[in-house]
Amino acid sequence: MSKVILNESRKNELCELNRISEVIYETSVDQGEVKILDPRGPIQHSTLNDSATVSVMTRRQVRPKKKQVQFTDKPPDNSKDVPRPLPTSPKADDVAPVAIQAERRSRIAKAQDEELRWSNLKLFLRGEVEKLGYKK
């Protein structure tokens, strides 16, 4: 539910707040500046008058090398060179019948519970609260 604002100063403030995204994302007319600090002298901020090129490397471009711990009593693992078998989809024989039965029962219970909730919602909307299947 929204409120009606009658105060003129509050209206102006809200109008300014509604424009925040426009103000934030406005493109600037100024070009970027490059400042160089002189490493030999005191810290000075100087602006270059000539144009410069800046290259940026993103985190995605940098690939950190994975570190591996090797033990002296174990030979190094050269599993990188060994081709891995392609993953296969599970077969019906791989799943226990008890697990299938439990999953089936839980899905049936969920469906029945959802059906009861929908019927209770319909009864509630009709005003027949005394006929609800369970109270919540």
UniProtKB/TrEMBL annotation:
Residues 44-58 have a biased composition (Polar residues). Residues 74-83 have a biased composition (Basic and acidic residues). Residues 40-99 are annotated as: Disordered. This is Unnamed protein product.
